[in-house]
Specification:
This protein has eight helices and eight strands; from the N terminus they run ββααβαβαβααβαβαβ. It has helices at 37-41, 51-60, 81-90, 104-112, 130-134, 141-152, 171-180, 208-218, and strands at residues 5-10, 19-23, 67-71, 94-99, 118-122, 157-164, 187-191, 225-228. It has an eight-stranded mixed sheet with strand order 1-2-3-4-5-6-7-8, covered by helices on one side. The longest helix has 12 residues, at 141-152. The termini are far apart.
C-alpha cells in the first residue's frame, strides 16, 4: 500500500478519538476544492512512507493514541489496503476510512472483515450536479449509491459529509443532497476553506450564518447534523 504522508497526532479527523492520520496518493476525482491537490495531480512526486514505519510508530504510541484515520486522495484505490488495515487492527487501534464512495465492493469487503470501524463518505452534491462537483466529465453514480446504501444499512459506524462551496452548490442543492441520504445517522456540513494549493482557484465559502441556516434545513432528512469549520 502506498502512503504519502503521516500526521502523528490529530484531534479532529477521528470523532471522539485521539488519532494519527495517514494520506494515500491518487484519486479518480478532480474536485476543484480539494485541499490535497498534490496527492491527486502529482502523486508520483510526493514522499513515500513505508507500512512498517507507520506500524512501528503506532506500536510506540499505543495507549496514547486510540485510532488511525486514513485519507487521500482516495484510499480504496490502493492495493493491499485490507492487509495493512488488518495489521493496524491487530495492534489494537480503531480505523477510520475516508472515501468518495466509488469503490463499493472494496468498501464492503473492508467492513465485512472488520478492517474499518468508522467510515466518512463524501456526498459531493445533489445527484444532478455530482459529476461537475467531482471535476469529472462522466460518473457512474450507481457505484456511489451502492456505497451510500451500504452505510445506511448500519453495518459500520459512519458519517456522510459535504464540503459546501458557494460557487458549486446552493442551499437548495445541499438540501437535495440530504434528501438523497434520507435517514442517515450523521451528516456533516463542512465550511469550505481556501487553504492554498487547491485544484481550482476562485472558490468561496458561505457565511457562518448561512451554514447554520442550511443545517436547519437538512435536519428533517437526517438524524444528526454536524457543522464543521464555523466559529
Amino acid at each position: 500500500m502506498k502512503i504519502s504522508g503521516l500526521q502523528k497526532l490529530t484531534l479532529l479527523d477521528y470523532p471522539g478519538k485521539t488519532a494519527a492520520l495517514i494520506f494515500t496518493p491518487g484519486c479518480n476525482f478532480r474536485c476543484p476544492f480539494c485541499h490535497n491537490a498534490v496527492l491527486v495531480l502529482d502523486a508520483e512526486s510526493v514522499e513515500s512512507i513505508s507500512e512498517d514505519e507507520v506500524l512501528s510508530y503506532l506500536k510506540k504510541r499505543k495507549g496514547i493514541l486510540e485510532g488511525l484515520s486514513v485519507t487521500g486522495g482516495e484510499p480504496l484505490m490502493q492495493k493491499g489496503i485490507k492487509e495493512f488495515l488488518l495489521q493496524v487492527k491487530e495492534t489494537g487501534y480503531s480505523v477510520k476510512l475516508d472515501t468518495n464512495g466509488t469503490y463499493p465492493d472494496k468498501l464492503e469487503e473492508l467492513i465485512a472483515c472488520g478492517a474499518v470501524d468508522y467510515v466518512a463518505m463524501d456526498i459531493k452534491n445533489r445527484p444532478e450536479k455530482y459529476a461537475e462537483t467531482a471535476g469529472v466529465e462522466r460518473l457512474d453514480l450507481s457505484r456511489i449509491s451502492r456505497s451510500k446504501e451500504l452505510l445506511l444499512s448500519g453495518s459500520v459506524d459512519y458519517e456522510f459529509r459535504t464540503t459546501v462551496v458557494r460557487e458549486l452548490m446552493t442551499p437548495d442543492d445541499v438540501e437535495a443532497a440530504a434528501k438523497w441520504i434520507t435517514g442517515a445517522k450523521r451528516y456533516c456540513l463542512q465550511k469550505f476553506k481556501d487553504s492554498g494549493g487547491l485544484i481550482k482557484d476562485g472558490l468561496g465559502a458561505y457565511s457562518d450564518d448561512d451554514m447554520k441556516a442550511m443545517a436547519e434545513r437538512v435536519k428533517k432528512h437526517v438524524k444528526e447534523v454536524i457543522l464543521r469549520g464555523i466559529d
